Amino acid sequence: MIMVLFFLTENYKTKTLIYQNPNGNIQMFENWPALVSYILIDGNFDVKKVLFNNLNISFFTSLQLGHHVEEKYLVWQELINDKIPGNMDFIINGHAGKTKIGFTNYESYIQAKSQIEPKYEIKYLGYVYPFTRRKKL
Description:
The protein is α/β, with parallel strands linked by helices. The chain has a domain at 47-124. It has helices at residues 32-42, 57-65, 86-92, 106-113, and strands at 7-11, 16-20, 26-29, 49-52, 71-76, 99-103, 122-124. It has a 4-stranded parallel β-sheet. A 3-stranded antiparallel β-sheet has the order 1-2-3, covered by helices on one side. The longest helix has 11 residues, at 32-42. It is globular, with a radius of gyration of 18 Å. The N and C termini lie far apart (43 Å). The relative contact order is 0.11.
């Protein structure tokens, strides 16, 4: 059994992350995407293809990884209201490299398709199972 120890502290006042890797080296990061991308690259993880399902930390991490990522996949599981989210628009306008977008919700797919130029292809993925989970009382 291999045990790997690292230490991570967040300064809540400055929002700085202080990371001590297993070799004892200490580094400071301004945000979570910077830290996560550093750990992925430093740990020699294969990040040629990245799949993410939100437009927050995981999306910004994919941007931070830069040239290490060849293909990005956004699997969108939320509803689209009147307008597609700004970060999705950022992707569609080509500012996030080669990123493919798939929707699990058909209504969201149709709503997004009506707002996106036909030249940017989006996909309807659906779910692996034939029904969505229902809450039990």
